[in-house]
Amino acid sequence: MGRLDGQRRADRAITLMRKISPVYFKIAEWGLRLGIGGAFIYAGWLKAQDPISFADSVNSFAILPSWLISTFTLALPMFEIVAGVLLAINWPKRIGALALMSLTAVFCVALVLAIARGLDVNCGCFGPSASTTNPWVDLTRNLLIVLGCVCLYRSDWLYNRVTARREILTAA
Amino acid sequence: MTSAEERWHTNLAHDLPRDLAGVVGVAIVALVAGLVVNRLRQSPLPLVYHTPEQRLAAELTQLVNAPPFRLEDLDTVGLDEFRGLVKSGQALVVDARAASFYGAGHVPGALNLSRQDFAGDYQRLRPTLDKAKDSPVVVYCSGGECHDSRLVASALISLGYTHVRIFTGGWAAWTASGAPIAQ
Q: Which of A91, A109, A112, A127 has its CB 3.0 to 4.6 Å from that of A46, i.e. a possible disulfide?
């Protein structure tokens, strides 16, 4: 009876695995990689066009000392562009995903601090804008980006687990 | 172990330190690239940051022999009064936004005296502005939490303009009311 129950569970698992085609997994990963990577390349390019306005946005968060603001302002757009390119071209995807995940997590912390302190901040995420942005909208967007980057960082591991499980169950 | 079993047993602890080192490498490359690109700009960003107030004060000092710049407590103008002033032409209307936003649309008859390029714009508009030193002047910017109108208005006061007020609703309130737009 025990062996029959185990066999039934294995059969159900194989049936389920066969329904989740690895092709759909890869398509979803492509879309996420190009979407997030492309968005950060665009955002970095916009910030690089007007560094003075971006420096003013960074200053509005009142976190960095003034002597560090310019250096941060000059390095961040390039970091976004380089990491976005690495992610978009999938070489190497994990470093690009981890870099953008870390960066966006730092943005989330900065936004939470700004909201908690009641500061009027402009994220400056997509360059200078005619009107200020809602920090809660920025925070929600950034949390979704962190989630996407986590999925991308672990996508190979997940893909390997799914395909390996299929093979192990099929070979059993 | 078979290939499938090897793939099943991959783990994070093996990859994470190497990936973190890669992220540090990206940060170093980005910093160097940012500094090089800044060096090649026509107007590089100074490595010591100055706030908008400090930059405007420095421009005023270069521009004219003005008294020290300070932020003023200014009278404000509501939307209805502002619309009346624009329609009657009884006040000089100043748009404190950057030239790109002014070009995309502005209050009819407004002059562009931007916070970002105050010195350049003031030099350009000086013949017109000098005639309005004792006339009512109303300054606006984007609206909401934008402070540029207050900065530009304070700068005009330090330059000797006597009747300067700000329209705090700004461009956002003007367009939301369906008022006419000039380009």
A: A127
Quick one: fold of B52-176?
Oxidized Rhodanese; domain 1 (3.40.250)
Cβ contact B26–A164 (<8 Å) = no
Chain A hits for B144, CB-CB cut-off 8 Å, are: 131-132
Q: Is the pLDDT of residue B1 over 50?
A: no
A74 touches chain B (CB under 8 A): yes
- Please report the ipTM that was assigned to this predicted complex: 0.77
pLDDT band of residue B63 (cuts 50, 70, 90) is low
Query: Residue A147 and residue A12: Cα distance in Å, rounded?
Result: 30
- A75/B31 touch (CB, cutoff 8 Å), yes or no: yes
Closest residue by Cα to residue B159 from B132, B178, B141: B132
For chain A, say whether B36 makes contact (Cβ under 8 Å): no
CA distance A80 to chain B (A): 8
**Whether A63 contacts chain B with CB within 8 A:** no
Q: Given CB atoms, is A167 within the 8 Å cutoff of chain B?
A: yes
| Total count of domains within chain A | 1
pLDDT level of residue B9 (50, 70, 90 thresholds):
low
Q: What residue segments make up the domains of chain B, in order of their start?
A: 1-47, 52-176
Stretch 116-135 of chain A: residues touching chain B, C-beta under 8 Å: 120, 128, 130-132
Reported pTM: 0.66
The boundaries of the domain holding residue A107 are 2-171
